[in-house]
Amino acid sequence: xxxxxxxxxxxxxxxxxxxxxxxxxxxxxxxxxxxxxxxxxxxxxxxxxxxxxxxxxxxxxxxxxxxxxxxxxxxxxxxxxxxxxxxxxxxxxxxxxxxxxxxxxxxxxxxxxxxxxxxxxxxxxxxxxxxxxxxxxxxxxxxxxxxxxxxxxxxxxxxxxxxxxxxxxxxxxxxxxxxxxxxxxxxxxxxxxxxxxxxxxxxxxxxxxxxxxxxxxxxxxxxxxxxxxxxxxxxxxxxxxxxxxxxxxxxxxxxxxxxxxxxxxxxxxxxxxxxxxxxxxxxxxxxxxxxxxxxxxxxxxxxxxxxxxxxxxxxxxxxxxxxxxxxxxxxxxxxxxxxxxxxxxxxxxxxxxxxxxxxxxxxxxxxxxxxxxxxxxxxxxxxxxxxxxxxxxxxxxxxxxxxxxxxxxxxxxxxxxxxxxxxxxxxxxxxxxxxxxxxxxxxxxxxxxxxxxxxxxxxxxxxxxxxxxxxxxxxxxxxxxxxxxxxxxxxxxxxxxxxxxxxxxxxxxxxxxxxxxxxxxxxxxxxxxxxxxxxxxxxxxxxxxxxxxxxxxxxxxxxxxxx
Length: 563
Ligand code: ATP
Ligand code: MG
Hints:
The protein is an alpha/beta fold. It contains 14 helices and 25 strands. It has helices at about 5-10, 15-25, 45-60, 80-90, 105-120, 130-135, 155-165, 215-225, 240-250, 275-280, 295-300, 305-315, 325-340, 535-540; strands spanning about 30-35, 65-70, 100, 120-125, 175, 190-195, 210, 230-235, 255-260, 345, 345-350, 350-355, 365-370, 380-385, 390, 410-415, 420-430, 435-445, 460, 465, 470-475, 505-510, 525, 530-535, 545-550. The strands form 6 sheets. It has a 7-stranded mixed sheet with strand order 10-23-24-25-21-22-11. Strands 19-16-17-18-12-15-20 form a 7-stranded mixed sheet, with no helix packed on it. Strand 23 and strand 24 form a beta hairpin.
């Protein structure tokens, strides 16, 4: 076991179980698995599961299998398999030589089903799905036994074989485990383990006419792979007796233990694949990787990086209590990361002209600017300066309120990396009342933004030289859903809860010239405006550089608030 483990990574109840299992010698090495169903893209909830499964495997020098849980041919597609593999590797996780597929075990699972039948522990039932549901009983009432429950072994084996060969219609028969129709746990009331589905499978093609059900396939796939700790979300707690029953009643190569933890829910978003799929299919977003989506692909496109996602997972921890995590925590994690890594640049989102009247006409100069005050190795760049600049409209006030230290007539302000300027006047459009031009004079002795006489200014603003500026577009994002908990709004369809301002497209943005050759792999901090990422696809479509705001600069969440 690694030394000082507690210090490296937070402890949680699952990790404690593993520590005990390793210390007691129950296991010499651990194997976990991450088992997404390839029926959608991975999202931030899956990231929690990945961090846990791959994270524990890394920490204990074990292994985590990536297993596509592809037992339902109706909903699964290769596109999803590709995206899942891509997202897992992007997160920095490795899964050994191959990707596993539950469908790899279809032959083995069928063999196990025959063993259960032969042992009198499974039977073919001719009841319809509706009848099966009816016979199952309720929480208060025991179930009723199917009239087909006591078929003989030979008849069951024959019917199962013929189900497999496609001789029967979908829905006409199922294979059920013979457990206990009076069990207090409904999952134990003779659960269905195979159903007839005449749909081609993305990997096995049209070989199979029957497909195994989740509980049966999952436990036995785990056992097949020698998984030691099978970590899943809380809704499977009631399925654990069934998981254990399959393991106990079949000659499996290993005995995995299922442990449940609470799934991740985040404010102002949805994490159900069914809902995410609808957002995509009904064009409520631009696709699975729309930067507003909580998918890994969306987060990546928006400018999130694996380190921030992992940090977030460490922050939220792992427990058995259901909870709703404030999305501001995720934003905090990315902001912390980008503060260390982003290249600083200037961009004016709502430009208004600032004319420096005493700056020599036609002159330009190049001023030094640090690329990242947090890391000297990022070096410096030169930014052009002239007597005609763009500044933010919101940095000027005609009638300044108290403590307004930015541009107002008579105020002296620092233009970051450049000079001190004092506002001398402004012009307005008589029709709209909007300020169209601000005038100022500069102090030539303050080059670099510092005065030699020690005179201080209270306001510092960013700017872009107008003759040099590049014209660009920024996409400003906000939460995708208005309510904090969209899943809780039971009387409304979630599509009605979408935030109409979740994406604001701002054109006419004035960019520091170096941004016309932005690097897609870099994170940028536009001074005072937030963290941005250059987006190739939108840029091509818009024929101008497009930057997406990953997150703003201000925190609405602080670590102390957690306590
Ligand atoms: P669906 O919405 O289709 O039911 P699912 O949650 O079952 O999706 P899977 O693809 O089967 O999704 O999940 C793969 C793994 O990720 C499972 O082990 C599951 O428990 C875990 N997982 C999925 N969503 C979350 C979540 N919100 N928080 C934590 N773990 C999750
Ligand atoms: Mg699932």
